[in-house]
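User: structure tokens for RIPR3 protein, please.
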Amino acid sequence: CIFSIFLFCFCRKSLSRSSVRSRMSLKSPKVYNSLQKGAVIWDPKPLQVKKIFEALKKGLNEYLEAHQAELDYLSGRHKDTKRNSRLAFYYDLDKQIRSVERYIRKLEFHISKVEELYEAYCIQCRLRDGATNMKHAFSLSPSTKASRESLVELYKNFQECTEDMCFIEGALEVHLGEFHLKMKGLVGFARLCPGDQYEVFVRLGRQKWRLKGKIETDDSQTWDEEEKIFIPNLHEKFEIKVTELRGLATILVGVVTCDSINFFTTKPQAIIVDITELGTIKLQLEVLW
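Assistant: Done. Predicted tokens:
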């Protein structure tokens, strides 16, 4: 029991030293107002956050490598043009090099910030797990006044860690960038006929995109909107719903969900989603991060 109390005191001190808000300068109440102390706390998802972090870091490193390669190429040309080219062209190339160097520094800072946030998240996650294990240990021991008081304190520490993890999740989302979605059309072979009209509804959390399209006589497709920007979300998946419009009636074609983890990459991706169970109608999108 004395050992358990010692562990509890150590954990409590660790929590106070590791308070996210005291160690990190995240000063943006307009962005994080829903995550401040006293706000409603949801359940953190460490495994999902880990997957997003790894995908995000990989994508950022791809951008960094691409711009580093561009910088190396421009620097090589810079040395050649210094001897063999006009002065105006030389200064224009020098301007491009400085621009790429600034962007590389921004990327490096972005990566370091994401790593800092995730490191703080992992610390709070371990402290939260420790508080959970100690709560379980205390619940198995004989009930005394000291143990009951310890359980109350452990519950407070658990809540604090949970809130800090949610706060970091909100801060991490700010660094996820944007997804640019382009509508490429439906693919349905014999299922799509001239004159058919469809409505596609794409949702990511609270973000929505509703667009209508028509199959033309030459089998081409026209859509009233072709591009939409979505802000990535740590926990939400893309939900895609397709309905066929027949006069005043609507017929549900299918509803599917699509994970966004694979979208964190430098190159535009063509995404083909099966809308029906048999894949007779597919939706084709292009995603650029």
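User: Anything notable?

Assistant: Strands lie at 179-187, 197-204, 207-215, 221-223, 227-230, 238-246, 249-258, 269-274, 282-288.
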